[in-house]
Amino acid sequence: MAKSLYATLKALPGKRETLRDLLTKLAGDVRAEPGCERFMVYTLASDPDMFHVEETYRNDAAFEAHMATEHGRVFNQTITPVVEGGGSKVVFLDTVI
After folding, report:
1. What's the pLDDT band for 43 if we cut at 50, 70, 90?
2. Residue 36 CB: number of other CB atoms within 10 A?
3. In Å, what is the CA distance from 9 to each residue of 1, 19, 48, 58, 97?
4. Phi/psi at 82 (nearest 5 deg)?
5. What is the pLDDT of residues 48-96, one digit of tens each?
6. How far, in Å, CA of 38 to CA of 58, rounded?
7. Cα–Cα distance, 66 to 28 (Å, whole number)
8. CA distance 34 to 31
């Protein structure tokens, strides 16, 4: 069964472009993972400093492999001084239909 989630990140003042660039690079790396089915990055229309990332992986094993990647570790370390709270807020989803 697919593993889906979304993450939100709020750029600190003056850090929007930095976060956008980091997410753009991460998207390329994650989309190249064999178990990645979807990785989309958005900003809120009403607040361009708020980023919303939707992710789906083939299954739990693919998600675990994603969590173990070097590019993910580097991204999470790099965003610490760029986003509110030092990281993303993650919500896991269950498919309804």
Report:
1. very high
2. 19
3. 26, 9, 11, 24, 27
4. -110, -25
5. 999 999 999 999 999 999 999 999 999 999 999 999 999 999 999 999 9
6. 9
7. 13
8. 8
